[in-house]
């Protein structure tokens, strides 16, 4: 694999406040290959969300360069999808009205796109809940609906900022597994931010470990665990434990 869809090159970010400046990111570099599921793991406050905001073009880096499909970020036409910790489903809209929101905003409502969304709802078992309000759905279903809303605009890259952290630990395991399966199934590339080592290992093809602020890349791990076994077996395997211990030491 040598055709990265995303290249982060030597990115730094300094936040300027009234009286001081604070360096959040320092010389961050890594690549994400097409179809890869990559996690960034690092301590709270180290700058993970900041980096996603930079990739989503919400803030500009202080230095460094980002390429998407070999094109500088600012000129890139590649569609990115962004999913956050809170699902941000609107309670006054039903599930159907929520999942087509992105298409509405982009002025892209047409038969073909609506059929695409309809099929996503069918494929991922939400079709019978089209007319339900978000509050009538379980946490896991809401997160699936939020993902479908993100997928509706057909993004090439998904940016996921701790999307499971609002779920209780039982639900979290199942839902995170479901979400990753959907992302893989739809052949998307994903960059997930998390501070949960278990989650990162069980979901990712590659893990990037960030240090404390100003954060830099401590290490990049390729994960080659056999993903066939179910998530519980996976988490009790020796390979998994070795990986956990290595990353744990790097983070502490
Ligand atoms: P993480 O997502 O890893 O928890 P963040 O990227 O949210 O970390 O924040 C990194 C650091 O930058 C934190 O110390 C945070 O307080 C600070 N920070 C975040 N946003 C701003 C901002 N707009 N202005 C100043 N400091 C900020
Ligand atoms: Mg964050």
List the helices and strands and how they pair.
Elements: E1 4-16, E2 21-33, E3 37-41, H1 48-55, E4 63-68, E5 71-72, E6 80-83, H2 95-99, H3 101-105, H4 111-123, H5 139-151, E7 157-161, H6 169-185, E8 189-194, H7 197-203, E9 206-210, E10 217-222, H8 231-235, H9 238-251
Parallel strand pairs: 3-8, 3-9, 6-7, 7-8
Antiparallel strand pairs: 1-2, 1-4, 4-5, 9-10
Helix pairs in contact: 5-6, 7-9
This protein binds adenosine-5'-diphosphate and magnesium ion.
Magnesium ion binds at residues 48-49, 161.
How does this structure look, described?
With about 250 residues, this protein is an alpha/beta fold. It has a domain of about 140 residues: Rossmann fold (3-Layer(aba) Sandwich), CATH 3.40.50.300. Helices cover about 35% and strands about 25% of the residues. A six-stranded mixed sheet has the order 6-7-8-3-9-10, with helices on both faces. The chain has a four-stranded antiparallel sheet with strand order 2-1-4-5, with helices on one face. Strand 9 and strand 10 form a beta hairpin. Helix 7 crosses helix 9. The longest helix has 17 residues. The mean pLDDT is about 90. The site of magnesium ion has 3 residues, from helix 1.
From the structure above, extract its key features.
four-stranded antiparallel β-sheet; binds magnesium ion; alpha/beta; 35% helix; globular; binds adenosine-5'-diphosphate; 252 residues
Q: Could you write a compact summary of the structure shown?
A:
With 252 residues, the chain is α/β, with parallel strands linked by helices.
Which class best fits the helix and strand makeup? alpha/beta
Shape: globular
Q: Residue ranges: pLDDT <50 for 5 or more in a row?
A: none
CATH homologous superfamily of the domain at 1-78 and 195-252? P-loop containing nucleotide triphosphate hydrolases
- What is the CATH class name of the domain at 1-78 and 195-252? Alpha Beta
Amount of helix? 25-40%
Nearest-integer average pLDDT: 92
Q: Order the strands across the largest sheet as they lie in space.
A: 6-7-8-3-9-10
Small molecules held by this entry: adenosine-5'-diphosphate, magnesium ion
- Largest sheet composition: 6 strands, mixed
* Radius of gyration, CA atoms, in whole angstroms: 18 Å
State the end-to-end distance.
31 Å
Shape-level CATH architecture of the domain at 1-78 and 195-252: 3-Layer(aba) Sandwich
How many strand units?
Answer: 10
What percentage of the residues does DSSP assign to strands (E)?
Answer: 25-35%
Find the CATH topology of the domain at 1-78 and 195-252.
Rossmann fold
User: What is the number of helical segments per DSSP (H or I, 4+ residues)?
Assistant: 9
* SSE sequence, one letter per element: EEEHEEEHHHHEHEHEEHH
């Amino acid at each position: 694999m040598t055709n990265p869809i995303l290249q982060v090159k030597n990115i730094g970010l300094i936040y300027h406040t009234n009286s001081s400046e604070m360096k959040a990111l320092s010389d961050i570099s890594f690549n994400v290959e097409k179809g890869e599921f990559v996690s960034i793991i690092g301590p709270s406050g180290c700058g993970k969300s900041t980096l996603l905001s930079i990739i989503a073009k919400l803030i500009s880096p202080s230095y460094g360069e980002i390429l998407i499909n070999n094109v500088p970020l600012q000129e890139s036409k590649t569609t990115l999808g962004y999913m956050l910790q809170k699902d941000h489903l609107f309670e006054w809209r039903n599930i159907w009205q929520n999942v087509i929101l992105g298409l509405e905003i982009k002025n892209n409502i047409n038969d073909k796109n609506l059929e695409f969304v309809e099929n996503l709802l069918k494929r991922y078992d939400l079709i019978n809940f089209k007319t339900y309000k978000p509050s009538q759905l379980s946490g896991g279903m809401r997160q699936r609906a939020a993902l479908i809303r993100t997928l509706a605009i057909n993004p090439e890259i998904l940016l996921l900022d701790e999307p499971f952290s609002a779920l209780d630990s039982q639900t979290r395991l199942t839902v995170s597994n479901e979400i990753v399966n959907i992302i893989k199934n739809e052949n998307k590339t994903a960059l997930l931010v998390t501070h949960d080592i278990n989650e990162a290992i069980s979901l990712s093809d590659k893990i990037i470990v960030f240090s404390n602020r100003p954060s830099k890349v401590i290490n990049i791990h390729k994960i080659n665990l056999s993903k066939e076994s179910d998530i519980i077996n996976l988490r009790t395997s020796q390979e998994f434990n070795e990986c956990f211990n290595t990353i744990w030491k790097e983070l502490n």
